[in-house]
Amino acid sequence: MGGTMTAESVEHRSRVQWPVPPQDGYTVDDLFTLPDLPPHTELIDGSLIFVSPQRRFHHLAINLLFRGLSDCLGPEFSVEPEMTVVLDDRNAPEPDLSVVRADAVTGVNQTRFHAKDVLLAVEVVSPDSESRDRTTKPQKYAAAGIPNYWRVEQGGTDSPLVVHVYELDPLSRAYVHMGMQRDHLKVDRPHTIGIDLSLG
Hints:
The chain is an alpha+beta fold. Helices cover about 25% and strands about 30% of the residues. It contains 4 helices and 12 strands. The protein has helices at about 5-15, 30-35, 55-70, 130-145; strands spanning about 40-45, 45-50, 75-80, 85, 95-100, 110-115, 120-125, 150-155, 160-170, 175-180, 185, 195. The protein has a 6-stranded mixed β-sheet with strand order 3-5-7-8-9-10. Strands 1-2 form a two-stranded antiparallel sheet.
């Protein structure tokens, strides 16, 4: 059966209709109105970015940090996994985790937050997202005024989780690398946070 194409599979493939981008690229409105987009589609510079299936590390890291942040933060904050953040009309990425002001949460049918409501954006690096998570996204988060950014990477066997902590320099509107943390994450922005980074 390996490489054999059936008539049914050929017919199915020919029915797939990929959206044709407009001349000036997509907008945030398109992101929320185009039918049948895959889950977790992002908008970067007017282009739609489709997310590849993730490795187990990605899910474990998100779950660990979600629990840790939720335990550390008070009711004035909300920890939001995989929610779209609108930066401008042509950029709407979906951080793996966001810490937002609780008063920005409008209900269970909410589909997005705005950059002004986000205090921390967290990206867990995957092979397909490495360049975006290291350069494109932090530049855009900083330009939009998000005050804190964490880039999470897979370390070695001794420290399986490594968190690069960045804070926004308001004058340059660029992030300053505040350090790389292993084993135990301890920061005081956007709030006092301490998280055990062991995945086991």
